[in-house]
């Protein structure tokens, strides 16, 4: 009997001791009491009419107006109002607030002077930098405070905007949150070969430290709509934007570096349109050393489907006609690669397709010597050969015309 009483007392004591650990987070805040930061846009500094009024009333501090940062937060009131049975359906689910200065970190700390809730960066999804700003300032410097901030997730995406970056954080669709829209659009690479693999802060850090040139996905905006189109070229030595690749040039890059997950290649046979849907592809960049001279060879193997055929003669299943289609697609892919390589070598003098990395892996001793100089300049003078093999393995639901 005494053993049973002792056991019950021990159990009760254990339960009492565990109670403090079951009360939740002691330092938690209700979601309505914080501003969840989900998007940031960095633009060249400008003062709004309100900012000018504040400064006229001696409401500023010593600074240069070099950078304007727009912070996008979740509007919890807007989310509630957009739900069924809520109030006004015209309120956006997000809020944008801008601040101008010369220190990105100090700009963040100015926001509590204008808003009742401080900004919390734990859920930041995307950072957009304008072309104008990134052409004049190093991306390393612009993102330094975010790369150091332990509160910001390294999975946060980085994009470049041709035009004002803050415009990409606007939408005309009630209930839509622009930052979430952008992150989802970047995930559409399996449907298009005009979208780069996501560039999160964690991956960007390595690019910056290596001093190698690289690409960032470009976004443009108009009247609340946005589009991913081409890419910004970042020079490794300066970490500044030095130019842009258009959509077709970006296609050429994705073929060269083997980052194609899906998409379409449009070509023609006898002046009529055909569309090839990519199902699989393999890409190899082969560096060759001959008597100290460096050359590259690109080998592409791809298999896909004839998804559209405007040619009014021949059956896709006919071997001769099929080979004619495959040759047309091969020529188009080769043209895409040649055009972008010409731009990289002649216009921009950058290697943003990974040629240097392949040389480093295959011929480390040679790489050790050439990297002493500016690799981008060296690359711009090297010959490159192309070998493309296309297999049309599927004609869709229609096998004949």
How does this structure look, described?
With 401 residues, the chain is α/β, with parallel strands linked by helices. The chain folds into 2 domains: 31-245, no CATH class; 250-394, Nutrient germinant receptor protein C, domain 3 (GMP Synthetase, Chain A, domain 3). It has 14 helices and 13 strands. The strands form 2 sheets. Strands 1, 2, 3, 4, 5, 6, 7, 8 and 9 form a 9-stranded mixed β-sheet that branches. It has a 4-stranded mixed β-sheet with strand order 10-11-12-13, with helices on both faces. Helix 10 (247-257) packs across helix 11 and helix 12 crosses helix 13 (364-370). The radius of gyration is 27 Å and the shape is globular. 32% of the residues are buried.
How many domain regions?
2
Q: What's the SSE pattern?
A: HEHEHEHEEHHHEHHEEEHEEEHHHHE
**SS content category:** alpha/beta
What is the tally of beta strands? 13
Provide the gyration radius in Å: 27 Å
Instruction: Report the biggest beta sheet as strand number plus sense, adding barrel if it closes.
Output: 9 strands, mixed
The residue-averaged pLDDT reads 88
Give the termini distance in whole angstroms: 92 Å
- Unreliable stretches covering 5 or more consecutive residues: 83-88
Helix content bin: 25-40%
Instruction: Give the count of helical stretches.
Output: 14
Shape: globular
Quote the beta fraction: 25-35%
